[in-house]
Write a structure and sequence with these properties.
- The structure is a single chain.
- The protein is an alpha+beta fold.
- Strand 32 and strand 33 form a beta hairpin.
- The mean pLDDT is 92.
- Bound molecules: ligand ANZ and zinc ion (2 copies).
- One zinc ion (ZN) binds next to loops.
Length: 822
């Protein structure tokens, strides 16, 4: 009576499909929206996908058994560069390549038995989807949140396209890991910075998001509270405005430094003897990378402008420098240099012999500028600061900012590190930007009824040339201006694919709508997602962008919630047996397909779950299968050993009295079942599937040895099969039908614990006085230490034995022993 997974798994997958078991109900009365990050179809499904989607599948099945209306959809993040690479290499179109991969992957996912509602599938590269991505872009335009700007953009020469800031880490491209350069280009930006504060505030409303993700987002948004202070320029009516988080140090300013890109930089040096040197310096530093410019380890250099600024607080004259450690795009692009209290300023001053003036004194040390080795950046007491002397520096921050404001040469300000989102890509395989450029009217959005702007198919030369392949497609480029009707040109660029993935979860709620991106009511029924499962690598990209879209759409009245997902769970990665991340580009991908052929879906997924908790990395090795396979067979056998007859009375509920009066063996099994229910439920909720499986394994051994009556056995087996159902759905269905049920086990109710049974779960506790055994007491398991002490000290013969001698201490070993020292 072997568990014949081949036949059984196929059989149930067919039945599930035929009975539409996973089709989302229309009611959404007790809704649960389970969202998994959709997939990039780069080939077939690999172990990483298999793990993530199976982890989610367990929750989906629990939710079904809890009686929820479940929305558990899937889709494809189908635009993007790899399709172009493959197309150039293999000579098939990006569309064909992508759709082939989608078909293969979908088939595999179906074989893996994941409970997706395939009716809800979305594919971002198809016109019925990208039409609405374009519509989204137009909404941003209408709201004034999409704008065009010529700006130095992050340029990846390998991918031949620009990148958003979020897509560059440590100066490298997120996709190909090659170094990123700068290139001046006209680009579309979305004004995500308008949402900096909302994006930050929202994080505080998400207690069920992992702390590390929230911290990463906070740092990425990077709010800095500080002040702007204006320094008049000597012999000029202009002023240099600086942004500082330390206004308390303003009297220690000994120079002002501006970014080489600053608009005054050229002008300031005109006619001074430093003009030529400054011009050369400006040219050189524009070539440098931001990452090198910002780093504290590289040497800071700069050039003196020959000009001076006046410190508005002290009237002191300070040199104006151009220094490329000052970034043009942050704050005002100018810093007040306080060498005594800022490390970069310190290094700069040392290098160029600029004076150092101490204005913050530590409590028990006297700083001497001539012997300082590094800046003193901590708090302290203000000195050399006129009226502010004696104040704590922390108070000084506010006081100085207030004073600047009162005297009208400054104000409190908040700066964010977050930059606007650059969304133009000079690539073919993306959603065309729905804009027409007219010489008379400028950049005009395509009218909504003309959407989608279709991506041309057929003969497109994809070999990268540094501009969009669409730019050379005359037929595509030619357009009529929607405003004046004149000859005009389309925007040749496509949108960052992160645009497509920023709203797919909304489309799932109404995926077939031809007239709208989604119906507001339908969306409101399901949103927000109750649980979002996906990788942590998206912390500062997708997971910020999708929150931004949601907030924007909320402000425009299209959605009701301001956060898209209530709870976020990051699953761990699957690594190969050498500890490397499995990825197609590394060529170390293990396919789940051969595993399920050989061992079945249920065994493979149990093995994967059993390896470790779902948020941890798993080093995959086929050896995990062996142990689990034995367990599956043993579990199966428990049921096969019994005739289906014993399940006749399977729905029996046991009253407390009945349990109390059972034989010892029956009672033990009954209590073990209750414990199992409580443990498995708890473990699954915390994504600790591994310990849930151990509990089921222990339980299986217990039942194998059980020789008591069949009524309690039937109860035990009925509960156990329900508990294993989310983890091993095919086997559970087969056993359920063996037990005589007509309907799917996923329509059965999720077990509840009979907690009363725990009252019968006693242990014998040995009570000692000064190390000598005096008494044995029966107590219910797991009473607290306090309860245990109280009960024991209340016992008559122990009271007598202790008499009036004071108790020095009580040593307790839970569920075993109490020693009273008198
Ligand atoms: C004077 C000062 C004195 C500063 C001191 C710090 C310590 P965060 O916290 O990251 O916002 N800064 C301002 N604009 C800059 C720019 N465009 N490029 C490079 N650095 C810039 O950092 C704010 C601090 O970074 C500001 O406060 C400024 O230096 C510098 F004892 O002003 B501070
Ligand atoms: Zn790249
Ligand atoms: Zn026009």
């Amino acid at each position: 009576m072997e568990y014949n997974f081949n036949e059984i798994e196929q059989k149930w997958q067919n039945i599930w499909e035929k009975t539409k078991l996973y089709e989302t109900s229309k009611e959404a009365l007790k809704k649960f929206y389970l969202l998994v990050m959709f997939a990039y179809p780069s080939g077939d499904i690999h172990m990483g996908h298999f793990r993530n989607y199976s982890v989610a599948d367990v929750i989906a099945r629990v939710k079904l058994m809890e009686g929820h209306d479940l929305l558990f959809p899937f889709g494809w993040d189908a635009f993007g560069l790899p399709a172009e690479g493959a197309a150039i290499k293999a000579g098939i179109s990006p569309k064909e390549w992508t759709l082939n991969n989608i078909n293969t992957s979908r088939n595999t996912l179906k074989k893996l038995g994941i409970a997706f509602d395939w009716n809800k599938e979305v594919t971002t590269c198809l016109p019925d989807y990208y039409k609405w991505t374009q519509w989204m872009f137009i909404q941003f335009m209408k709201a004034g949140l999409a704008y065009r700007k010529k700006a130095p953009a992050n340029w990846c020469g390998t991918c031949n396209t620009v990148l958003a800031n979020e897509q560059v880490s440590d100066g490298k491209c997120w996709r190909c890991h090659n170094e990123v350069d700068k290139k001046e280009m006209e680009q579309w930006f979305l004004r995500i910075t308008d949402y900096s504060q909302e994006l930050l505030d929202g994080l505080d409303t998400l207690p069920d998001w992992p702390e590390n993700i929230k911290t990463m987002q906070k740092n990425w948004i990077g709010r800095s509270d500080g002040a702007e202070i204006e320094f008049p320029i000597e012999n000029s009516d202009r002023k240099l405005s600086v942004f500082t988080t330390r206004p308390d140090t303003v009297c220690g300013v000994t120079f002002v430094a501006m970014a080489p890109e600053h608009e005054f930089a050229d002008e300031l040096t005109k006619g001074t003897e430093n003009e030529a040197a400054a011009a050369e310096y400006i040219k050189q530093s524009r070539l440098k990378k931001d990452i090198d410019r910002m780093s504290t380890s590289t040497e800071k250099d700069g050039v003196f402008t020959g000009r001076f600024a006046i410190n508005p607080f002290t009237g002191e004259k300070v040199q104006i420098w151009i220094g490329d450690y000052v970034l043009a795009s942050y704050g005002t692009g100018v810093v007040m240099g306080v060498p005594a209290h800022d490390e970069r300023d310190f290094q700069f001053a040392k290098k160029y012999n600029i004076p150092i003036k101490v204005v913050i004194q530590p409590e028990n040390e006297k700083l001497d500028p001539s012997s300082m080795r590094e800046a003193y950046t901590e708090e302290g007491i203000m000195i050399n600061s006129g009226d502010f002397d004696g104040l704590k520096s922390t108070e000084g921050i506010t006081k100085v900012a207030q004073a600047a404001e009162a005297k009208k040469f400054g104000r409190k300000t908040i700066n964010y590190r977050l930059r606007d989102w650059l969304i133009s890509r000079q690539r073919y395989w993306g959603a065309p930007i729905p804009v027409i450029h007219c010489e008379k009217c400028g950049a005009v959005p395509v009218s909504e009824r003309d959407l989608p702007v279709r991506l041309p198919e057929g003969n497109i030369d994809l070999i990268p040339k540094g501009r969009s392949p669409l730019a050379d497609n005359e037929e595509f480029m030619k357009a009529k201006c929607p405003l004046c009707g004149g000859e005009a040109k389309r925007d040749p660029d496509t949108m960052d694919t992160f645009m497509c993935s920023s709203w797919y979860f909304l489309r799932y709620t109404d995926p077939h709508n031809k007239d709208m991106a989604f119906d507001k009511e339908k969306c409101a029924k399901w949103m927000p997602a109750d649980l979002y499962i996906g990788g942590a690598e998206h912390a500062c990209m997708h997971l910020i962008y999708f929150r931004f879209f949601q907030k924007f759409l909320k402000n425009r009245g299209f959605v009701q919630n301001s956060e898209p997902a209530v709870k976020l769970f990051n699953h761990g990665m699957v690594l190969d047996d050498k500890g490397e991340i499995m990825s197609k580009s590394k060529g170390n991908v293990v396919s789940p397909v051969h595993l399920i052929k050989e061992h079945g879906v249920d065994t493979t997924r149990l093995a994967m779950f059993f390896a470790c908790p779902s948020d941890k990395e798993v080093l995959w090795s086929d050896s995990y299968i062996t142990g689990v396979k034995r367990f599956v067979q043993k579990f199966w056998q428990l049921y096969m050993n019994e005739s289906p007859e014993i399940f006749k009375n399977r729905n029996k509920k046991f009253e407390f009295m009945e349990v109390q009066n059972m034989g010892k063996e029956e009672q033990q099994l009954y209590i073990a079942v209750q414990k199992l229910i409580s443990r498995v439920k708890d473990d699954l909720e915390r994504f600790q599937y591994n310990t849930a499986i151990s509990a089921l394994m222990e339980f299986t051994t217990l039942v194998s040895d059980y020789k008591g009556n069949k009524e309690v056995l039937a109860h035990a087996l009925t509960q156990a099969v329900k508990l294993i159902a989310p983890l091993a759905p095919h086997m559970a269905e087969e056993l359920w039908s063996y037990m005589g049920y007509q309907e799917s086990i996923f329509k059965a109710s999720w077990p509840t614990v009979n907690k009363n049974a725990f009252l019968l779960d006693t242990v014998t506790i040995v009570v000692q006085i000064n190390g000598k055994v005096r008494e044995r007491v029966e107590l219910t398991q797991d009473v607290t230490e306090e309860e245990m002490k109280e009960m024991i000290l209340g016992m008559e013969n122990l009271k007598k034995a202790i008499g009036d001698k004071p108790i020095k201490k009580m040593i307790t070993v839970p569920n075993k022993l109490v020693n009273i020292v008198i």
